[in-house]
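User: Show me a protein chain along with its predicted structure.
Assistant: Here is one chain, sequence first, then structure tokens.
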Amino acid sequence: MRTVLIVNSGDGTGLNFTRCLKDAGGWRTIGVDPTLEDYHGSEADVRHLVPWTDSGDLIEAINRICAEQTVDLVYGADTSAELLVISEHRDQLEAVTLLPRLDDHLRMEDKWLTWRALSEAGRTVPDTVLVDGPADLARIFDRHPRIWLRRRHGSAGAGSIPTSSLAFAAAWLDEHHGWGDFTAAQCLSTRTATFSGLWFDGELLCSQLRERLGWRYGALSASGVTGITGGQRTISDVDLHAEAEACIRALSTTPHGIIGADFTFTEDGVPLPTEIQPARFYSSIYFIARAGLNLAEAYCALACDGRDALGPAQINPCAPDQYWVKGVDMLPRLLSRSDYNVS
């Protein structure tokens, strides 16, 4: 039995990764969480509360646990300060990791650098500016009646908001100390899709597409985005898959580990890349496993045993139109299309 140390194991992303490994069998999980809430919420076999302020303290704690528990693999489950520390100090860890190259990771985590790389590679992207000052806001409003503001870094829509008001946009940036740290882009539709891909030295080994049907609790967020997918479904789309792969290769010459891509559609139905997600799975990883592709199990086997651990590539193998619904305090449900669309 192999042992995986999961940092942020009590977060939704860590919980679903843990559930994938429990379903697969043969994996022992060690949870490391910085807060009491996530520590108590973790479903790992063994749990550790590790509050920290200095990166050296976190690495020391992880290495101590690795030695005590004979850990084979360290996995950072969420876009967080912890994941960044793990990526930056991977060579100091007493267990293997499966991460993109550090320069690729940092580029993908920065939405402005991501947009520039995609644009320079000739991919079709949303019209976007980095908002260093009022002139940048005025410039994007000259081209679009409604814009989308969001931070260069972070996840779950933190700090994002749509607006048609130049004055409001400026006030929002003032309030969030966002000048130079936010981008402003043309507003697109509410339809979104996501590609999840597992890579090894530039080779795509496993992937799956899904379409979000809406954000759970979106009415409680100023932007309508919460990072908590409510309903979603598996999809099959050769063109979207090709675009996702091309976008990721525009950010990295040798994609490695888990790297996904988010798309938002124009009102005319054209999918545009809005984010490249490096180094960790989305919280919907358990949905994909239940739908037929256990990416978490494949990830761990690949990290521990190398390319030979996996057979031929599995590209979008899940049957389309499998639906997944979830929310706080409810068990997720996997449904067929007919079961989901209640008449």
